[in-house]
Amino acid sequence: MSTTTSPSKHLLELQGVHTHIGAYHILHGVDLVVPRGELTLLLGRNGAGKTTTLRTIMGLWQASQGSLRFDGRDISRLHTPQIAGLNIAYVPENMGIFADLTVKENMLLAARQARTVAQIDEARLQWIFGLFPAVQKFWNHPAGKLSGGQKQMLAVSRAIVEPRQLLIIDEPSKGLAPVMINNMIDAFAQLKASGVTILLVEQNIHFAKRLGDSVAVMDNGRVVHAGRMAELAADEALQRSLLGLAL
């Protein structure tokens, strides 16, 4: 009798992850799951360890203990280029765009399968232009001349210029005007609907409540709460105990 193994419902799983940066012990046994096809939010006060968790997932900092599994594969000891090669895209808080290059050149650099703009999937590019019209509008402009919101849209566009299984983004709404935040929410809703699994660090509560399926709350380098975003959004007492404020 033959048996087949079905993929785990969790695309990404962290178990007991510790991270040291120099003499500092930042993560103290992080347990985190990111369900397939959902948008998972990582919330917490400043300094809770959220960004360190993302950087550890991407191999920018090596976990000193614990396991990280992506799509069933142990990635704990892989280097960042190998992790990115597994169809994981990461948008850091500083956005990681090249200010001296044009928007077009930034996009081409991110499209690993293309040597010229003509080789970028045209249908995908038009889809991105629909999500973020500013990317098309400023196609030939230096990226450094864009506004903060436009740079954030370019950073996300670079991350999705090729199909990705997992999109990891650190505070996409930081510093954005409310109208830009609503545009970003709409774009992420479309991304999620297309089947992309998303892990977001986010401080904007409106953003979190509108988009989140599941949520993990961090404090002092640990996940102290995990569950459905709708349940956290409905429980003000829990919000106050975890985050020090009501959503």
TrEMBL record:
It comes from the Bacteria. InterPro entries: AAA+_ATPase, ABC_transporter-like_ATP-bd, ABC_transporter-like_CS, BCAA_Transport_ATP-bd_LivF, P-loop_NTPase. Residues 12-245 form the ABC transporter domain. Keywords: Amino-acid transport, ATP-binding, Cell membrane, Membrane, Nucleotide-binding, Transport. CDD domains: ABC_TM1139_LivF_branched. GO terms for molecular function: ATP binding. Belongs to the ABC transporter superfamily. PANTHER family: ABC TRANSPORTER ATP-BINDING PROTEIN, HIGH-AFFINITY BRANCHED-CHAIN AMINO ACID TRANSPORT ATP-BINDING PROTEIN LIVF. This is ABC transporter ATP-binding protein. It comes from Curvibacter cyanobacteriorum.
